[in-house]
């Protein structure tokens, strides 16, 4: 059953169409991802879902409520972890969470119990009285997510939650998302990291220039558009790329000095590439990065 539905959704800023007539639905308790490069329209969609930016045309229904008429009620069932670090640096972890709880008219007693639980969940109990300025980047990101959960929302929105984090901190955020999903939260995630989307998302919308190019599970999108394997082959110039392309049948994409040959059988791909050229090549499993390359001719992170 869908908990969020976007219909014919459009948003324009100063003549620029940031979101271009898109449709999507997000099921209850799933992790749904909006994937794409900077400027694709991901954050704009998130802002409209969370009622932080008005819908241009079309509509978004959240838990059977329209963002056009029920913004206040929708905000009460949504938690938003922003991409920006907007914590109060002069306050402690506990103080940041306690002050935020007042926006939702949560009593001090209930807020304290809820904050203590969140600090334990995010392994921040020992840092309870530490000022934000003294926290690592990973701890700040966990605190931002914890803050988004103070009102015990049904839906958690995470806008590029791991940007700028080291690999260990990224994995900690991933583990947090998986745990929250297992507890029944619906999670809406934006990211431009391919591995993050494949690891966390049940389904996703692949966005580019304000449009949804493709829509489905990571596995479905990879198999539908690419196949299961890719041969990545180096071609130093346009002439050699053209010559190699003439000798290899099937689906080929050229990006810069590399050719990408798609298929399902790794051994067949390897033999084709070896027969076509002595240039360096490798065969690997297909990823969402390859899907994006195929659809747009450019890469993501």
From TrEMBL:
One of its GO terms (cellular component) is plasma membrane. PROSITE patterns: ABC_TRANSPORTER_1, ABC_TRANSPORTER_2. Belongs to the ABC transporter superfamily. It comes from the Archaea. InterPro entries: AAA+_ATPase, ABC_transporter-like_ATP-bd, ABC_transporter-like_CS, ABC_transporter_ATP-binding, P-loop_NTPase. Keywords: ATP-binding, Cell membrane, Membrane, Nucleotide-binding, Translocase, Transport. GO terms for molecular function: ATP binding; ATP hydrolysis activity. It is found in: Cell membrane. Gene3D superfamilies: P-loop containing nucleotide triphosphate hydrolases. It comes from Methanooceanicella nereidis. This is ABC transporter ATP-binding protein. Residues 4-234 form the ABC transporter domain. Coiled coil: none annotated.
